[in-house]
Amino acid sequence: MSVTVADICALMEDWAPLSLAEQWDNPGLQVGDPARPVSKVWVALDPLGEILRSAAENRADLIITHHPLIFQPLRRIDLATALGNDIRLALEAGIAVYCAHTNLDSAAGGVNDVLAEQLGLTCTGVLDSQPGTGLGIGRVGYFETPVALAELASRIKQDFRIKGLKYAGDSKLKVERAAICSGSGSGLMKNFLAGDAQVYISGDLHYHDARQAEQCGRGVIDMGHFASERIVVRAVAGRLRSWARESGVQLEVVVPELETDPFVYL
């Protein structure tokens, strides 16, 4: 059985429908021919130039990323820019690029559910739900055993192998319930504060988010954008491999170990 780019796109969108994406987002097929046969797929967090170059050298047919290659509408493709050069590279190598972004954040079994599982959080709801779907951005839930805020932060740093992590709030705060949001979660602080979770775990949190949490007797843990999302790469790869086995498809799925957090912690 042969597989095409369109087949893989359909598989991804059965899991994470494009209708789940935020209005400002741009998920889906970004570059490439839907009819192209696929025998090798690479899965990564970001469509970085080094990922594209290495995929081309290794004769990949399709790259699936979480973050979009093309995010804002393009008025021109300028090969002197990094984005223009990346698009040129993908086209010349015949590599299709597919993105599953906020739709995968919201999807059942997507980024936030993977994050919750690795945190040991039993989910009971969604932090910011989409009407009529029961799904949405972020999750809320509880830990089987209550834990002090400082201890929880330390555990996350160790378990996720994070070089730098910050938290705010009383270090001895007893945490039973948590709200989480993979990636950049500052915009959902209001949802966290409207609920009964003691801590909010996310990335890209701001100074005033920390002050708000302090004043409300809550806590926040900023584990970083990269660490909170890179975990989904292996989940995507695992789903593709399972589908290939069940379908009797010859499909090589590669997770390149080329990505690191762009921040350097001193």
Structure, described:
With 266 residues, the chain is of the alpha/beta class. Strand 9, helix 8 (207-215) and strand 10 form a beta-alpha-beta unit. The termini are far apart. The protein has helices at residues 5-15, 49-57, 82-93, 102-106, 111-119, 149-159, 189-194, 207-215, 225-229, 232-247, and strands spanning 28-31, 40-44, 62-65, 96-99, 121-129, 136-148, 166-168, 174-184, 199-203, 219-222, 252-254. It is globular. The mean pLDDT is 97. The strands form 2 sheets. Strands 5-6-8-9-10-7 form a 6-stranded mixed β-sheet. Strands 1-4-3-2-11 form a 5-stranded mixed β-sheet, sandwiched between helices. The relative contact order is 0.16. It contains 10 helices and 11 strands. The protein has 2 domains: 5-101 and 230-253, Udp-n-acetylmuramoylalanyl-d-glutamate--2,6- Diaminopimelate Ligase, Chain: A, domain 1 (3-Layer(aba) Sandwich); 108-222, NIF3 (NGG1p interacting factor 3)-like (Udp-n-acetylmuramoylalanyl-d-glutamate--2,6- Diaminopimelate Ligase, Chain: A, domain 1), CATH 3.40.1390.30. The longest helix is centred in the C-terminal third of the chain and has 16 residues, at 232-247. Helices cover 35% and strands 24% of the residues.
**How many distinct helices?**
10
What is the CATH homologous superfamily assignment of the largest domain?
NIF3 (NGG1p interacting factor 3)-like
Coarse structural class: alpha/beta
H/E element sequence: HEEHEHEHHEEHEEHEHEHHE
Strand order of the largest sheet: 5-6-8-9-10-7
Q: Tell me, rounded to a whole number, the average pLDDT.
A: 97
Helix share bin: 25-40%
- CATH topology call of the largest domain: Udp-n-acetylmuramoylalanyl-d-glutamate--2,6- Diaminopimelate Ligase, Chain: A, domain 1
What oligomeric arrangement do these chains adopt?
A: single chain
For the record, what CATH class of the largest domain applies? Alpha Beta
Q: Main beta sheet, described? A: 6 strands, mixed
Gyration radius (Cα, Å) is 19 Å
